[in-house]
């Protein structure tokens, strides 16, 4: 249902309307914090008694953690004009018609404070602040139904078990997504399922101070989900070895089949994947198909590939792929929607899916947004083809792709980035989109690959037995959610976010059996949250960083890996807290410079905090090499031999339980650090 949202700030503050901080909020910028313009006392009497020794004088100085959070929640100095650090609950009156929804924080979502925390009836803003430590925006939220029209248009009545009468009851999943996406009933006041209104996004969290490759402006709002029905049919045109879907509208494989002349390129198969009599045009479709040409979707047309139990015409699609011939499905400014189906390569000479062989091609699927920004450079685009979206829902995708650009198996990409990165603002103008949910992906060259992807939700999938990576969001793929997946037996990293992939959230995944790291944040993939993952039996680190910053890594369990966590090449200002590392073969906690050339730092890991972690059954509990100002606090080590600090400066070491370990090398600790007995 569409709701009217009421999001309450943590405390009311007085501000001068004429002044704004860099994050867009009214106030004065002080050392990276946004203070109210007229600064009064420091949140009441609580600040002066904090361990950090804060007083009212700290109100507008570097000790501020964020505007609006009480001292009791943060241990830092907020600024409130009223001097009251314990506000009362501000609940809308019943006459307003609002319903209390809970305490929320700022996980990325285009129209609301997103993450459900708790719906305690006695919730106050201070309790909500405690629940939401570490987030830039949070508050209590109430909703009010705006009034229900028809149920998302005509599409809902065609879904299993849903009718228009379901519009405003519990079967609704959320406002906005259409029936074909969720299988549940959305609610639009205007009764139009083709164009739900887009609301303004919640502002992005203000980042901590860290190196930055290139500043980004606000990301564009993603397009509406693929429609559940179309007013028009796409134009189908067959030209030599390519079938085109053009001129907007929607189409299915049956539309292609009906447009051909009896000689393919789409063939009807029986249950044993053999062609039936009249397979090229006269046979009755069975829901199983063989494709022997390329398909190209352009002009904002949409190809639906859906299983018969979802109201579609495709339970299985085999794409011919032999040593000499292989084909692609190519969305080039068009869209693809896969639901309840299976799509694989198919070696027609052997009657089975084609497994990867080095130096040989295989069939693949790609979704390409192409934008001409009139920028002259090597790698730039000279065409404007439009935006592509590809969704994979409740489907199986197997044995596709090889080692060539855009041909990795499942690829989402924005074309047009200059090789010298001089036009990174390209990604503020155009993105590529799509979700992967409840699907089984295997045997790809890369399990999936994206470049310029915005806001993907990749959840509840099996991602396994791929030649290289599992999930591989690359250059400027931002605001992704990668959660509840089982990622295993991939040849390289299980999950890697590489090159300016910001605000990625990775949680509740099991990642194991990989040839490299379980989870890797690479090259300015900043402001990530990685938590509640079980990572085990990988050949490299459980979690790895390379020149990435401002991540929160917490509540992960890492077992039987070469390194517990490793931070290299200047990675800084990362918080690694409350994780468990067990049976690590080399180093539990590891920082080092490495041999790569830095882009945005001096290469020395700096300002990282390791706090409250448990490291057990590891010979070298900590190897801190070539780092500066790193903090190790209140960690528990069990059955470790040594701690080593080599070419590191100003390491803080306090409150750690040594578990019998001794200091093998390194003496450069900050004043006040605890001593470690020498070996």
From TrEMBL:
> Pathway, per UniProt?
Protein modification; protein ubiquitination
Entry EC no(s): 5.1.3.-
Q: Does the keyword Signal apply?
A: yes
Gene Ontology MF terms in the entry: isomerase activity
A UniProt-annotated Pfam family: NosD
Q: What class of enzyme is it?
A: isomerase
InterPro entries, alphabetically? NosD_dom, Para_beta_helix_rpt-2, PbH1, Pectin_lyas_fold, Pectin_lyase_fold/virulence, SCF-Subunits/Alg-Epimerases, WSC_carb-bd
Enumerate the residue ranges of region (Disordered). 190-232
List, for all copies, the residue spans of the domain called WSC: 97-202
- Low complexity bias: start-end ranges: 209-219
Protein keywords: Isomerase, Repeat, Signal, Ubl conjugation pathway
Which region is the signal sequence?
1-18
PANTHER family per the UniProt record, alphabetical: F-BOX ONLY PROTEIN (PTHR22990), F-BOX ONLY PROTEIN 10 (PTHR22990:SF15)
The protein's name in its UniProt record: Mannuronan C-5-epimerase
Q: Which organism is it from?
A: Ectocarpus siliculosus (Brown alga)
